[in-house]
Design brief:
With 191 residues, the chain is an alpha/beta fold. It has helices spanning 20-31, 38-46, 50-57, 59-74, 92-101, 111-118, 132-150, 162-178, and strands spanning 9-14, 35-37, 81-83, 102-108, 153-156. It contains eight helices and five strands, in the order E-H-E-H-H-H-E-H-E-H-H-E-H. It has a five-stranded parallel sheet with strand order 2-3-1-4-5, with helices on both faces. The longest helix has 19 residues, at 132-150. It is globular, with a radius of gyration of 16 Å. The protein binds shikimate-3-phosphate (S3P). Shikimate-3-phosphate binds next to loops.
Length: 191
Amino acid sequence: MGRRKQRRALILIGFMGSGKTSAGLRLSYCLKQVIEDTDKLIEDRQGETISEIFASKGEEYFRSLETSLLQELVERKFHQILSVGGGTPLREENRKLLHQIGTVVWLRIQPQTVYERLKEDHTRPLLQGENPLLRITELIEERQEAYKAAADVIVDVDGMEVEEVTEKILDAWNHYKKHSRKKETYETIGN
Ligand code: S3P
């Protein structure tokens, strides 16, 4: 019997509020594939919300949970759609694991858009300080290189509804699969 071909995931990365969860759900509906979300898996397994984990055990502990989960996911033969927390691509080890799991789509977003979307949100421990817009701007700036290094495909999401973002993801993903695997070629697709 021939070996079963491994299927690569479509992986969504991006800053908090970039719409990974909503685009992921819509992709799941369009492609009739299951979506998994690393934050959700961690919360279910720990029996605590992300905020509770940050508060009781700290950010580093949460980061180690993210890495162990990716190490586990890499062992799977069959992948579907995966969305990961906004900080997951920061570790080089995680970026390598993500590339082993699938094609990485970065939902790129501007700080002001994140601020508008998340100003009433209290579930993101990293954004609960004094000046959230400044914090968002600094974090996005700090993370650009890591996101870029992780991304096979970039889709800009500012000013777009989830339907349009989903279409762009599908276009960019299909293009990426069909043509060469050089990521530079695909950066403009989302623009
Ligand atoms: C984080 C993003 C969150 C969650 C945690 C840390 C980050 O996920 O993993 O609060 O460091 O950007 P979302 O991007 O799904 O909000």
